[in-house]
Amino acid sequence: MELSNDLMYQASVDKNPDFEGVFWMGVKTTGIFCRPTCTARKPKPENVEFFQNTKDAILKGYRPCKVCKPLENPDETPEYIQKILEELREDPSLKFKDFDLVERGVEPATIRRWFQKNHGMTFHAFQRMFRLNTAFKKIQQGDNIMKTAYDSGFESLSGFNESFKSIFGVSPKNSKTQKIIDLKRIETPIGTMYAAAVEEGICMLEFTDRKMLETEFKDLAKSLNATIVQGDNPHFKTLEKELSEYFEGNRTEFTVPLSPVGTEFQKSVWQVLLKIPYGETWTYKKQSEVLGDAKKVRAVANANGLNKISIIIPCHRVIGSNGTLTGYGGGIWRKQKLLGLENAILF
To answer: What residues pair up with 201 in beta bridges, in sequence order?
Structure first.
């Protein structure tokens, strides 16, 4: 994909989100640089220049735009929230009240808005769900319900039962037949991702800005007859470690257990994806041939598009027969970055 100045300028005029992270535009007349999606008035083509990273723009003397804030990742979890989440993972019975947040220098309204935007609930509701998630696992392991309720910070058994049933749809007593899917936000150099895991392994790894993400969550829960809740999972630690090593260029294969959800045909297609070596790209046709039926190119492409475990099941390594980068759920720019990282294709 040739990133000409005309193409980048048009992308800026269109405020095309597909180019977020691909380039930044410097405005010569004002001395500022912007994201492709900046809402500020667009300058004339002769008054702009383009950069592949923010460092080059700054070294050239440009200042970050105050409107689009190009140095910030809009989906990234702020460091102070990451610290609070880590404390909750260490001790789920903790209860952060507004007073505790203010003491830490955190504005309660700010953290409330962030959780509402990124998790669809208030921070206090998030904490309650986190405690219930931990309680759910303890009860499934045979712990006493009353002891679990009080250890989870609930002041009465009836309050615990009511909250538990509102989240999981069953009472604590009947929860041993219910299944849960743990969910966690993970930061990467190319954007924030949602990771979901069950006991068997990772069942989802998607970018938070992926279209139809809500539908994917619903399909996942329905397929596994489970409830998705914020919580910790042993597989997350391995996943974060291996993703970090991958982006640092120190890992070419993943060992974290996977538990993909799909039809038998889809799973067979994803197994072929796992055979594509790091640093290589295959066409859909080659993928179909390896699968055993060269005529199933379209079916294979559709199955690739339904892969819910990005990066680890590497659908980004599949390109068009003419060498072009075809669709990618996380955005073409991310496909470029991943292939560039693996040296499969350079831009």
So the answer is: 198
CA-CA distance, 101 to 94, in Å (whole number)? Answer: 13
Q: How far is CA 208 from CA 9, 63, 255, in A?
A: 26, 28, 23
Helical H segments across 232-275, by residue range: 234-247, 264-273
Asked if 346 contacts 35 with a C-beta cutoff of 8 angstroms, the reply is no
> Per residue in 153-175, is it b (16+ CB within 10 Å) or e — as a string?
ebeeeeebbebbeebbeeebeeb
User: 315 catalytic, yes or no?
Assistant: yes
128 contact partners, CB below 8 Å, separation of at least 6: 163
* Range 263-279 burial, b when 16+ CB lie within 10 A, else e: eeebeebbebbeebeee
Cα 191 from chain centre: 7
CA distance 207 to 205: 7
Which DSSP state fits 177? G
pLDDT tens sequence across 132-185: 877 887 777 778 888 877 777 777 788 787 877 777 776 777 676 678 899 998
Do 36 and 22 form a contact (C-beta atoms < 8 A)? yes
Backbone φ, ψ for residue 194 (5° rounding) = -100, 125
The residue from 38, 65, 203, 315 that is catalytic is 315
Residue 50 near residue 25 (C-beta atoms within 8 A): yes
Dihedral sign, CA of 180, 185, 188, 192?
Answer: positive
**Sequence-distant (≥ 6) Cβ neighbours of residue 141 within 8 angstroms:** none
Q: Inform me whether the pLDDT recorded for 347 exceeds 50.
A: no
pTM exceeding 0.85: no
Tokens for 324, please give them. Answer: 């072009």
**Total Cβ atoms within 10 A of residue 28:** 14
Q: At what angle do helices 284-291 and 264-273 cross, to 10 degrees?
A: 120
Q: What does the alpha-carbon distance between residue 88 and residue 99 come to, in Å, rounded to a whole number?
A: 17
